[in-house]
């Protein structure tokens, strides 16, 4: 931004001519004769005309102001800051941001200088400023008022001292300082500024509000403020907070407070309840492997996970858990299949698919390509191992499924890319860029971008010909591809394996069938639309749909932006340990 330089150049248009003017910053080297208003004005000009983004400009200014406070500001650094805060409201929209800037800079400065000779004077100015803010004669945000109290360490005794001086001058606006402060805090509570109120209660060690205040913050979802105030009040109020969270099924909040404040003895079952809640959430997202890892071998939790798998109809997971952990008393898969009531899911055999062909070597790649090139319509889908680390990039696409009328080919992209990348590129280019093969997908834009991100050097994933996104033919269909299949074909798709480990080799038979079905069902849905010539929302009516108008004849894969780094929404698993 130019603080290391001595000048900032500004471009000013005057009478259609561009004149370069300079703001001289030599005043910053010595603040002895620089009044606060000039100092702030120069800072504002630096901010306005700086060429960095707002956050970086703020941090650069923050560091610079911290250093400048050592350059002899008068009557001293603390009082200088207090005076700056007094006049900042005249800078309008810059007031709040620059108040945070100057206070945070002064806070940093105090870490290097334990105290300043003018701190006592500055504290008196800060008290007067606080009183003026509360009375409304100075227009500062209430959060700034709290920060002023904190950075200048203003206590009730300091306010009483200033008020007594005012009374000596026949200013009797403040009868009781504590009452005056409490009234202001209660006004903050009424206006639902809960965190600001809590900060002031804690700062002045006021313990007056009761349990109703805590409940009000919870009801308004001010959980951070509720925990801060309960922590300030002590274990009895923390216990009330935990109990409220348990009753409201906010088990994560309850668990974290119990753990942080050593309340395990008072709430021995909260940890187990929270773990069960976590397992249930993970199972609902299809993250069975992660859920199993979260049990840490606890037998009760493993049994609970097995029952969740039963409810989801994930019977092979039940069998896996029973065998791996020697669970007794749970029915075997054969018994469950005969007795367990579960929703009906679409079966691969119902789509007249002859077989699933795994492609992971050169000869198989060539045969698959020749077969697919003889098809007029194919269904496409991809799978990759979910990444549960919050904020991280998705894993590389593991497999690509291409379904014809009779067969589904599952390409092991990871192995083929390692062994025969050039042949893989050539074969998939012949398929994906063929102008005579109609490629069907469901919300395939995400897969297209992920393929390019995973294998960016392959030309086959840079452009596509003859694409038809089945999703665009159906309006307001809930439940994704599974919901669409249920609506049109009478049975949905079992999505319990969606978030399984697609990088393990070999894939299980259930994984293969799941992957194949996602591609094969697209062809069946397309034929239903084509043969009826209707929209999916009106298959029982006579409204026609021009499905051909939705075909994209050619599309280049756009470069990924930062916002597109998480292409398909994956479940994010937070670490609670």
From TrEMBL:
Which residue ranges does the record annotate as region Disordered? 552-577
Q: Name one GO molecular function term.
A: 3'-5' exonuclease activity
User: Domain of life, per the record?
Assistant: Eukaryota
Q: Where is the 3'-5' exonuclease domain?
A: 356-534
- State the InterPro entries in the record: 3'-5'_exonuclease_dom, Exonuclease_MUT-7-like, RNaseH-like_sf, RNaseH_sf
Q: Which Pfam families match?
A: DNA_pol_A_exo1 (PF01612)
Transferase as a keyword of this entry, yes or no, is yes
Any GO BP annotation: nucleobase-containing compound metabolic process
Residue spans of biased composition, Basic and acidic residues class? 556-571
Q: Which UniProt keywords apply?
A: Transferase
Q: Which sequence ranges are marked TM in the entry?
A: none
What is the protein named? Polynucleotidyl transferase isoform 3
Species assigned in the record: Hibiscus syriacus
